[in-house]
Write a structure and sequence with these properties.
The structure holds two protein chains of two kinds. By secondary structure, chain A is α/β, with parallel strands linked by helices. Helix content of chain A is about 35%, strand content about 15%. By secondary structure, chain B is α/β, with parallel strands linked by helices. The model of chain B is unreliable at about 1-5 (pLDDT under 50). The chains are: A alpha/beta, B alpha/beta.
Chain lengths: ~300, ~290
């Protein structure tokens, strides 16, 4: 059996498969599937949905639209807020038996700092992902679209914790590698990519925007080639490891991301089609590695893409 | 006296993951189609619950759609002697997903996840003084009503079914799923039964009834459900509705199936529903259209 053990930012992992933030609610899944969810947990590391300062109801319906080989969502980060999350949700998530990364988002560096300090203080948390696809209330700019804003935010947050800080990159920029370099310069331990691609749909009956929020983000195999290009562009210029995602649906597509330069991968939209999609990716990796002539995961991770 | 929704019988957890089930049969039923899957490992599904279905071949086909599985309530289940279950689904071909499911042939394989979601309460759980149940189904929404009716029959609880359809091309499965007793039909085009809406029949029934002993259950198009909800709320009659909403996963992962709650915020229909109390939501109109 091929050894798939690896690590990300010093966090040891039994394998290279994470979930994309917001694509697998482990607490809801445990209610639905019972203890089998924990016994056969499909990921090697669990990334929480994005946590915000205050509780949020999320966007008005409709929130979903099916596209060719994908879907658009505009969920709007519903959640209990950081205090509710730390008080209630974290206990259940710590029972999953895998390292836990908590995703956070705020609309100012000050609030980001509060979130990072509160979350990092909890020993159940192995790392923090920064969702920077949100406007800064002071500048009005989306942090993750601006290298300077990204670097400034990282410099403000870096001193607050020694735990890994991962910046989730948006694909909705001309040069994602510039934002990645800025994150690295600011002290990020890793970048994860890609977030969803900005997208909209028109209601076939009313002729207006289908999504309650007007527009949303495209995910699924439809975005995979975009994600691969961006992972390749970023991983060739940064030293920090890349967490690759964007339409991964099986072991073969997961391996494509590793060959494009990702150290580990995340499964997102495929979880909606198959609750055990993460496990299917892991189970298929040894054969996929062998088919492409790699003796180990490490060999594939070290392969340099021409 | 109203009972709390927590009194609903508990359903066992769904098997983790999805499983391939063989198509045993697929046949026209009026303007609809009924197809049958053999589920060898799933638990007995409860009335109101649903499954996520995707044909194993030709999903994400030529046009890249359908891509997501479709949430569909079973219309009937029957345990088979050598283990497992026959699950019947009633579908109307309205888009790429339902068309692909309708095109499945006996021997084909279908991905199945579930059963998911909440079930209907029993009448006495919904209303301590309930004398029986009134079931109001519209279009393919008659499917979960048929499952509930069958459970009520098995438990010896009286029920009356009111079923409404647009026209003959958008109807089917009534005789097969309901039999003939205690059913009243409404067709909007007047081709059979009452000419008009099924809610007309509900109003007639409630006029002749003591509404304090009523318990109403409904599934159908959002506009019909909202009408049923309003009729019941105005008369202080406990009502449970099985709603639809665009839904990617069925198990709480995607947060797509938001339905506005009474008093603000949203519920996730897949895990907080699909069966909800009429007074628990702000409107039944937010989820259309769900299954295509």
């Amino acid at each position: 059996m091929t050894d798939l053990a690896t690590d990300i930012c010093g966090i040891p992992l039994a394998g290279p498969v994470l979930n994309g933030s917001g694509t697998f609610d482990a607490l809801a899944a445990r209610r639905v599937f019972g203890d089998a969810l924990v016994e056969e947990f499909p990921f090697d590391c669990y990334v929480s949905k994005t946590i915000t300062m205050n509780p949020r109801p999320g966007n008005p319906p409709y929130r979903l639209w099916e596209t060719p080989s994908g879907m658009i969502n505009s969920i709007g980060l519903p959640g209990p807020g950081v205090d509710g999350f730390l008080e209630r949700d974290l206990v259940g998530l710590s029972e999953l038996g895998v390292p836990l990364i908590v995703s956070v988002m705020a609309d100012s560096a000050e609030d980001f700092a509060i979130l990072v300090e509160k979350v990092a203080a909890r020993e159940e948390v192995s790392g923090i992902e920064l969702n920077v696809s949100c406007p800064n209330v002071h500048s009005g700019l989306i942090v993750g679209e601006q290298p300077s804003e990204t670097e400034a935010l990282m410099k403000a947050l870096r001193p607050l914790t020694s735990k890994p800080l991962i910046v989730k990159l948006t694909p909705n920029v001309a040069n994602p590698h510039e934002v990645a370099l800025a994150a690295e310069a600011g002290g990020a331990d890793s970048v994860s990519m890609i977030n969803t691609v900005k997208a909209a749909a028109i209601d076939p009956v009313s002729n207006r925007a289908w999504l309650g929020a007007g527009a949303g983000g495209l995910s699924g195999p439809a975005v995979r080639p975009i994600a691969l290009a961006q992972v390749r562009a970023v991983s060739s210029v940064v030293e920090i490891p890349v967490i690759g995602m964007g339409g991964i649906s099986d072991a073969e597509s997961a391996l494509e991301f590793i060959l494009a330069g990702a150290r580990v991968v995340a499964v997102g939209t495929e979880n909606f089609r198959d609750p055990k999609a993460g496990k299917a990716v892991t189970d298929g990796l040894p054969a996929a590695l062998e088919r492409r002539g790699f003796g180990s995961l490490d060999e594939a991770q070290s392969a340099t893409l021409a | 006296m109203r009972a709390e929704p927590a009194d609903r019988p508990e359903s066992p957890p769904a098997p983790f993951g999805r499983r391939l089930c063989e198509v045993a049969e697929s046949r026209l039923a009026g303007g609809y189609r009924i197809f049958t899957l053999i589920d060898e490992t799933g638990p007995v599904p409860a009335p109101g619950q649903f499954f996520m279905l995707a044909a194993s071949g030709g999903w994400a086909g030529e046009e890249g759609r359908p891509y997501l599985p479709r949430a569909i309530s079973h219309a009937r289940f029957q345990e088979v002697p050598d283990g497992g279950m026959r699950l019947d689904f009633l579908i109307d071909e309205v888009g790429p997903g339902t068309s692909r499911l309708a095109a499945m042939k006996p021997g084909d394989q279908c991905w199945v996840a579930g059963p998911f979601g909440s079930r209907f309460s029993l009448p006495r759980q919904l209303n301590e003084d309930a004398a029986g149940a009134i079931l109001v189904g519209g279009g393919i929404g008659i499917a979960p009503m048929a499952v509930l009716r069958r459970e009520l029959v098995d438990r010896g609880i009286p029920s009356r079914s009111l079923l409404g359809f647009r026209d003959q091309a958008h109807s089917g499965g009534v005789e097969e799923l309901f039999g003939c007793d205690e059913i009243r039909l409404a067709f909007e085009d007047g081709s059979a039964g009452h000419k008009g809406y099924v809610t007309d029949l509900l109003l007639q029934l409630l006029e002749g009834d003591d509404s304090r002993s009523a318990a109403v259950y409904s599934c159908g198009p959002p506009a019909m459900l909202e009408a049923v909800r309003q009729i019941c709320l105005q008369r202080d009659i406990p009502v449970e509705l099985a709603l639809e909403s665009p839904m990617a996963c069925g198990y709480g992962a995607c947060f797509g199936c938001a339905v506005p709650k009474a008093g603000g915020g949203y519920l996730r229909l897949c895990i907080d529903g699909p069966v909800v109390r009429g007074d628990g939501i702000a409107s039944a109109m937010a989820g259309e259209p769900a299954v295509d």
